[in-house]
Amino acid sequence: MNKAVFLLILVVVGAGLGFLSGIISAPMVFDTPVFISSMGASAVPVTVPDVQGMTRAEAQRTIEGGNLILAGQWTEYGGFETMGMVVRQDPLAGTQVPQGAPVNIFWNVGPLFRPFHPDSVIGLSASRAEEKIADWQLYTAGRTRIPHPSIPEGEVIAVAPWFAESISVRRPVRLLVSSGWTGVPVLVGLSVSEAESILVGRRLVMKIIEERQISDILKQGTVLEQFPYSGENYISGDTVSVVTGAIGGAGWGEW
């Protein structure tokens, strides 16, 4: 075989191998591309549904029903009319994405400032006050307990901060709650009958040791002083001595 024939055979064989290689590799090059979802399965793209105006639960069902994943639920402040509803989404509705792709939603938690009437919780039990604050869609930061001579244990004495009408949802409300009063009760300023009623309830005895002449008619018949003082320890049956106010006496009415 001469050299020219040998070269011709090599060219023919090379061309044949190139043709076969093209037949094998062509489908791999020109086949329709596929999308790989976050679930790891090959899938055709899907359309992101419109979930704006839905509740979070409805949005989750709709997103997951469309072979997508609810990724994040983010909050935004807005008006009462769309409170609790989805107001934005990412990706936007109508976007083509792979199956299993994540979708984020943004829902309205309501206005930044909420109605707040602190005076209306004074005198309530601490638990009822916390319920009322929650009804205003605010939250509490716990309770501070202090003794109080006249407000019963467990009732709210004050709240902090004290803003009339409205307050930011970012400001927690703390309650000042009475822990009661274990010592001798406060009698000064009370009428004699009120003071005696309180002492009877504590199993104490009241003794009027002086009726002091006064010019202030508003203090007539009230307790001016007491012994022992309020807050001091006592035992059942102890006596509390009081000084009361009385109108009259020598020279009263003279000009």
Description:
There is one protein chain. By secondary structure, the chain is α/β, with parallel strands linked by helices. The protein has 3 domains: 39-108, Trypsin Inhibitor V, Chain A (2-Layer Sandwich); 113-178, Trypsin Inhibitor V, Chain A, CATH 3.30.10; 192-247, Trypsin Inhibitor V, Chain A, CATH 3.30.10.20. Helix content is 23%, strand content 31%. It has helices spanning 3-30, 56-65, 126-135, 192-201; strands at residues 35-36, 42-43, 46-47, 69-76, 86-90, 96-97, 102-108, 113-116, 140-146, 156-160, 165-168, 173-178, 205-214, 223-227, 239-247. The strands form 6 sheets. It has a 3-stranded mixed sheet, covered by helices on one side. A hairpin with a 5-residue loop joins strand 1 (35-36) and strand 2 (42-43). The protein is rod-shaped, with a radius of gyration of 42 Å. It starts with a helix and ends in an 8-residue tail after the last strand.
Report the order of strands and helices.
HEEEHEEEEEHEEEEHEEE
Strand order of the largest sheet: 4-7-5
Q: SS-based structural class?
A: alpha/beta
Helical element count?
4
What gross morphology would you assign?
A: rod-shaped
Radius of gyration: 42 Å
Entry keywords:
single chain; 255 residues; alpha/beta; Trypsin Inhibitor V, Chain A; 3 domains; 4 helices; 23% helix; rod-shaped
